[in-house]
Automatic annotation (TrEMBL):
<dbReference type="Pfam" id="PF02954">
    <property type="entry name" value="HTH_8"/>
</dbReference>
<dbReference type="InterPro" id="IPR009057">
    <property type="entry name" value="Homeodomain-like_sf"/>
</dbReference>
<dbReference type="GO" id="GO:0005524">
    <property type="term" value="F:ATP binding"/>
</dbReference>
<protein>
    <submittedName>
        <fullName>Sigma-54-dependent Fis family transcriptional regulator</fullName>
    </submittedName>
</protein>
<dbReference type="Pfam" id="PF25601">
    <property type="entry name" value="AAA_lid_14"/>
</dbReference>
<dbReference type="Pfam" id="PF00158">
    <property type="entry name" value="Sigma54_activat"/>
</dbReference>
<dbReference type="InterPro" id="IPR025662">
    <property type="entry name" value="Sigma_54_int_dom_ATP-bd_1"/>
</dbReference>
<dbReference type="GO" id="GO:0043565">
    <property type="term" value="F:sequence-specific DNA binding"/>
</dbReference>
<keyword id="KW-0805">Transcription regulation</keyword>
<dbReference type="InterPro" id="IPR027417">
    <property type="entry name" value="P-loop_NTPase"/>
</dbReference>
<dbReference type="InterPro" id="IPR025944">
    <property type="entry name" value="Sigma_54_int_dom_CS"/>
</dbReference>
<feature type="domain" description="Sigma-54 factor interaction">
    <location>
        <begin position="27"/>
        <end position="256"/>
    </location>
</feature>
<keyword id="KW-0804">Transcription</keyword>
<dbReference type="InterPro" id="IPR002197">
    <property type="entry name" value="HTH_Fis"/>
</dbReference>
<dbReference type="InterPro" id="IPR025943">
    <property type="entry name" value="Sigma_54_int_dom_ATP-bd_2"/>
</dbReference>
<keyword id="KW-0067">ATP-binding</keyword>
<dbReference type="InterPro" id="IPR058031">
    <property type="entry name" value="AAA_lid_NorR"/>
</dbReference>
Amino acid sequence: MPIYHMENEKMLKRHQLLQNKLRQFGFITQNAALLNQLEMMERIVPTDISVLITGESGTGKNILAEYIHKNSPRKNNNFITLDVGCLSPQIIESELFGHVKGSFTSAVSDHKGAFERAQNGTIFLDEITELDLNLQKKLLRVLEDKVIRRLGGEREIRLDLRIITATNKDIRQLVKSGKFRQDLYYRLNETTVHLPPLRERPEDIGPICQFFLDIYNKQYAKKISSVSTAAMSLMQDYSWPGNIRELRNVIKSATALSKREVLWIEDLNIFSKSTADTNPQFNGIKPLDTLEKEYLLYALKIFDGNKTKTAQALDISRPRLQRILERHKIAE
């Protein structure tokens, strides 16, 4: 067997093993480029190297952070998540570093911050770019000295933990514009994992759908086996601005409401990317009848007007397609 075939088989086996591990955490991908990147990430999982995870909202950054922690030597200790973007500037410092009783008006008791609670484990700071420059400076000092003091406190608390951060912003651009400290960026960016948006991973939509179908079939006592060819085509054409989080909600809703064993287009609360792109005023809400007609025209265009191929792609008979075309007054 040629060497390149042997190497390819070895890579496929490694990817399969990695996919199985990730699936246990609900992270599903068949994208070769992403799997190559995650395979590289696997090498630093057993270490304490800081990891910066980038990607749009809903791409699974929090799942990947937990995966890193649960497969590291610190897995039996706390994994503490703090979404910086959800906190007001007035309480972020207290939530990060803690405070002592009486340090400010509402501090009625001592409070352990996220860093202290993550002792010997991992802290995951989501939306790290939302920190203001003052707190960025304090965070850098903590990471370099591995020591914190609670607000209003004098006692130094030495830290032993791993830090993972994430952002949905272009952090390098923020560094260039002076909105994020370059020295802190270098400290957090010992290694980076970028999660591409779902629209760039169309091959992942089917497996992710099936994963969520399995979950919600059990939750709602349904027996939906799959998604129709036409519905899958629609989903692969859609831009998924909310990424996997949005796809999960679409499948959850469709599973709960559908009375079929296979999900059809009308079960899905989404619209065609091509429709949105060609109709700037379209706000995502249209009558189902209009959407069906637009999608039929789109499908016919894809197959150069060939009704037999169009019917096969839509998972319907050719006579049924003809009746639908007549109903919409779509000419030959």
